[in-house]
């Protein structure tokens, strides 16, 4: 498997969780459960993606700016996650902030899938793409098991 397919599989999980959580209301048990799942997926994914997709691209002239952009968007999502964690889930502000997060997630996934993956495919060799996918998948598995304690920062 290539790194792009591994990442795309996790993007699909994120899209599904975003779609489900925006349909919830109040501080319901369902919203709380979906929020925990979404937050976990986004945080674990950011760590694995930064290490095994973006970090190797930082050293390339072709992808350095894109890699920095992707990492900056992760930081913006982290800030929205923190704001959501510090807001009453039943408040209108929580839902408005969630909608900002969902928009940011959708934008980020679109950037990667429609632009960055094609560019990176011209940077990485097939062997690198497969090796990065393995490392990415292993990191995702390890961090999912030990979340949230294992998340850096």
Explain what this protein looks like in three dimensions.
It is a single chain. The chain has 153 residues and is an all-alpha fold. The chain has helices at residues 3-21, 29-58, 64-85, 92-121, 126-146. The two termini are 30 Å apart. The mean pLDDT is 96.
SSE map:
Elements: H1 3-21, H2 29-58, H3 64-85, H4 92-121, H5 126-146
Structure summarized in a few sentences:
The protein is mainly α and 153 residues long. The protein has helices at 3-21, 29-58, 64-85, 92-121, 126-146.
Give the ordered list of helices and strands: HHHHH
Outline type: elongated
Distance between termini? 30 Å
| Oligomer type | single chain
Radius of gyration: 16 Å
Structural class: mainly alpha
Q: Care to count the β-strands?
A: 0
What kind of sheet is the major sheet? none
- Give the integer mean of the pLDDT values: 96
Number of helices: 5
- Residue windows where pLDDT falls under 50 for at least 5 positions: none
Instruction: Indicate the proportion of strand residues.
Output: under 5%
Provide the helix percentage.
over 70%
Task: Give the key terms.
0% strand; 153 residues; mainly alpha
């Amino acid at each position: 498997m290539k790194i792009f397919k591994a990442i795309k599989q996790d993007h699909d999980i994120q899209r599904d969780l975003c779609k489900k959580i925006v349909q919830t209301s109040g501080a319901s048990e369902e919203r709380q459960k979906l929020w925990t799942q979404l937050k976990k997926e986004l945080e674990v994914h950011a760590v694995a993606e930064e290490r095994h997709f973006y970090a190797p691209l930082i050293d390339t002239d072709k992808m350095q700016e894109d890699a920095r952009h992707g990492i900056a968007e992760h930081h913006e999502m982290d800030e929205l996650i923190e704001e959501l964690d510090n807001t009453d889930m039943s408040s209108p502000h929580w839902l408005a902030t969630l909608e900002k997060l969902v928009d940011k997630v959708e934008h980020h996934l679109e950037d990667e899938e429609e632009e960055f993956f094609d560019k990176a495919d011209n940077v990485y060799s097939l062997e690198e793409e497969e090796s990065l996918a393995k490392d990415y998948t292993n990191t995702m598995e390890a961090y999912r098991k030990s979340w949230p304690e294992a998340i850096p920062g």
